[in-house]
Amino acid sequence: MRGRALVFYFGRRLLMLVPVTFLVTLAVFLLASLVPGGVVAVVLAGHPTDTATVEALQAKYHLNDPLYVQYLAWLGNVIHGDLGRSILTSQPVSYAIMTRLPLTVELNLGGLLLALIIGIPLGILAATRQGRARDRGVVGIAVLGSSTPHFILALVILYVFAELLGWFPLFGVGTDYPPDRLWHMVLPTVSLAIGPLAFVTKITRASMLDIIDRDHIAFARARGVSELRIMLVYLLRNALIPVVTAAGLLLIGLLTGTVFVETIFGLPGLGGLLVSSVKGNDIPMIQGLVLVLAIWVVLANLFIDALYVVIDPRVGFERSAS
Amino acid sequence: MLRPGQLRRSGRRSIWWVLACSTAAAIALTACASNQPTTTATVALLTWGLSSTPATLFAPTNFSAPDSAIMGLIQDNLLVYTGDGKLVPSLAQSWNAPDDTTYVYTLRSGAKFSDGNAVTPADVIFSLQLQTDPKYGSQESTLFGNVNSVTASGNNITVKLKQPDTLWKWLPTHMGFYIYEQKDVTANLASYGTPQHPPIGSGPYMVKEFVSDSHITLARNPNYWGTKPIFDSVVFQIIPDDNTRLLAMQHGDIQGAWNPPPAAFDQWTAAATISNMPAYIWRGLTLDMQDPPFDDIHVRRALYYATDRAGIAQGITAGKAKASTALDDPALFGGILPDATVTSGYASIATFPFDITKAKAELALSKVPNGFNFTLNVPAGSARASAISQSIKQTWAQIGVNVTLNVMPGGPRFQVILDHGPHLGVQVIGNLPDVPDATELLWLYFKGDQAVKNGNNSSNLKDSQIDTLIQQALTETNPTKAATLDLQIQQLASQQVPIIPILWENNQVAIKKGWTVGPINAFSWSHSFVEAIHTS
Amino acid sequence: MAVTSAIRPAQTDRRFGLTLWLIRSVPASVGIALIVVTILMVLAAVGEWLWPVSPNAQNLYLIAAKPGAAHWLGTDTLGRDVFARVIAGARSAVVGPLIIAASGLVVSSLLGVGAAYLGGAVDNLTLRVVDIMLALPGLLIAIVIVSLGGGGYWMAILVLSILNVQGDIRIVRGAALDQKSLPYIEAARILGIPRWRIMFMHILPNISAILVADFALDFALALVALSGLAFLGLGAQPGTPEWGTMLSDNEAILFTNPLGSLAPAAAIVLLAVSVNLIGDWIFDRYAGRGRFIR
Fold first, then answer.
1. Residue in chain C lying closest to A148 (CA)
2. How high does pLDDT run on average in chain A?
3. Domains of chain B by start residue, with CATH
4. C47 in helix, strand or coil?
5. CB contact, 8 Å: B385 with chain C?
6. Whose CB among A111, A151, A271, B33 lies 3.0–4.6 Å from A262's, allowing a Cys bridge?
């Protein structure tokens, strides 16, 4: 299924982006709006209040308009690229998101790379030494890594490496000077990557075990193809397919862990912003964040599906059909 | 010199090393200072640890007392409160009140904003209009509801009030009446005070950098009219995690922080000098006197008896807060009434110290002698409110009153209070006076006309005698008379047990060992708190 | 001719049943894991009554005490005994994930098998719904919904159950599809066995190993997700002994009594690891290696 069919397929998937994000943002908007005591109560809590002040604030942020008017106004602005303004911080939502997005992307990509670069070789190692000490060790670590919640890992890592040992900084992102930035990002990235790393190890090992006995491998061995070549050419390519299949889940897992890691290490990323804007019922910010997240996830899944098609030409369109 | 963001640890430092360094620095500074009596030694940098990013640095969009400590370094007020009832000229070189409802402030000439523009009466008028004009939707506007008009002629700004008001004279010192530059604000109104448009002020410092979730850098304002503070530059480093902030203090990455968490008090005391800063914060419960079974005075007394206020003060605040007996902290009367009067005024307030036996006996006299069940709304995100409500749940259960704790996000929780529905039950309250006047809290929580939608009187206390007294106190311009009335109001109200007062809290300032913090209180820290820090 | 027992596909004569799992060679680690899980289940059911110290008794004058004779793991921010609270917390740690995993099991059995076997419109609809749900990072949406909805243990469970179901449906559907192409199903159809019977009396039992393994994995993930939500303050009523909430509350006393946070953290990890070990083992042994990737 090459050429036009492929283009149509991905084009259709991209178009799906529109109704999905529409539905998601609508659902979140309704939720946030129906919560009594929106952002006005949040900012006035613990202060002298009277009706004039409450009404002035509600008028300022158009909170008294009918719900559909508010939502359509927001939608109209979004089409023009204006995501609105945060009620709590007066910052444009797009500005707040754009200044934080690079950090979260950095963190997620770093985590993904780390998980793949270490996880795949570990998985292969375990598979080729199945049953023996090395395998058991790797599997044990993998189970531990995937069972420990992100926030516990991050806390322990912060405490041990930043406080007790003093090898890394305690908080923040450092200056723009790349080595300094890298140094500040090591601990958070490692904390984020451990869970996905364990997962990748497990999958790689499982799929390697699955094919390591297959006939054509045995046949290649019989023909005298070198062990290394076998591993690289045959095993690896086939073993990667399940990893790519699971990459979608990986990305989502990373995004989720980001919230906790950013909170604990005090990093100014999207995760912390999501938590604070939800707690403050900052509707424009929540809407903007959910929109960006939904787009991110859909695009990422699309990209992975494309990758999948490239890696395994035999397969049809839907990963989910397998 | 450390640049912001470059705050990395370069190895473990012991407390002794820090102590030695700062002592040496202090000695050196003192030596220098004593050799040159005419020049004040300056310190290059002060780094302060914050637990969260200020929402904005513009008071109308951020009514936050802690954040006003930062805003006060950038903005000026017309007047400044120095403690013990004294108002001192600041941007206004003088003021007077020709009659009960008219106040005239004479603006100092030669004061400039950090961008070089002069501070004009138009700017002052505009700054007040930010609060009085509903189109700005300012968060402090409730405080300025009594302003009728504001005009200027020459350098004199005249404010006319709708009725005589004891609270007004303090408001020019409040963060709600910072002086902003009209041109700058109107040009950038929607995003004023954000990192994109940091505020411009005529205060001792100006904003050099404002990076959300990272830091705020202030540098000296070259156009400042007043005495230069000793620090060339102040950096506020945002460190949300409590433990990380403690570690930063221990390692010298920051030289100061506010409100160390009580649970880690011992570690903080070892790492820094902790100073008390009066804040008169009140925490307690309001009991809806129109909502059965709380309409029964025996029930209210019983619940008061069953609240372990002393235990809460000791356990939850590490003894830093006091168990309170009324809305106003007695220190609010300091300098206005003689101590003996205040003491006897407070002695006559009805209190019911923790005693389960008495609580049970009192409940036995009520309509619900076997106890009852109800749900208490607890604001999320407040460790103190959560701890208090858990303590209450435990102790009230001992007299048969079973509380279900319902944690709600801050907004919806406060909205219940604002909606002022029929069954307000028990509400958890934390508040502090905005001005150094005991009348404000009494007005908000005890006055009958505040027991309405969007009002704060959740006890539904509607007593005509108390109302008259409060009205008198609000319009009384003689501070001594007003204070006497306040004492009387508290004593009268306490007979009906509309509230269960639990804590009077103050703020703590942690400062580098070897440094000291001069006398400072909650009403003056919204104006250049840095001036109170002494490095020698 | 009524066929009353499940027809097995023509494979090796490997049979399995619950009892045989235990008798077969269970590796030591899985054995320990099973013991741990059993102990925690028992504690969840009756723990509060087994241990004399109350998990809720406060002592405002003994905050954050270090471990000692009176309090084996010290006390927390309100002077409550940490050990008693860890035991009491077993209940919420077990009940919530159990419900989430069980609801996932039930729904995915019905919808997954149904979609796979019936095909056509049912399959398409199911796939569409599942695809849309895949577009959303589950825990993040849970954070938004639970937070706006006011938090609470049961709301968190509800939201997580709904979001969890889509992954299970995919897996079950995949497994059922594989079964569908096997000759014995064709045989059953020819024999005239009714559809619902084929789906639930034949296909379902044959994929039960995957269902169990998936159940275990769901449990572990739900445990982590629930404690994560509790850590962010979206868990049960304050004061309820819940491991995630304890972890977050006692962070404040990390330097005074670190066990206040470390003990519930260790408990969460222990339970999650044990359940994962069990799930992985079932998966490896009985579900075919590497084919049905979670």
1. C269
2. 79
3. 280-507 (3.10.105.10)
4. helix
5. no
6. A271
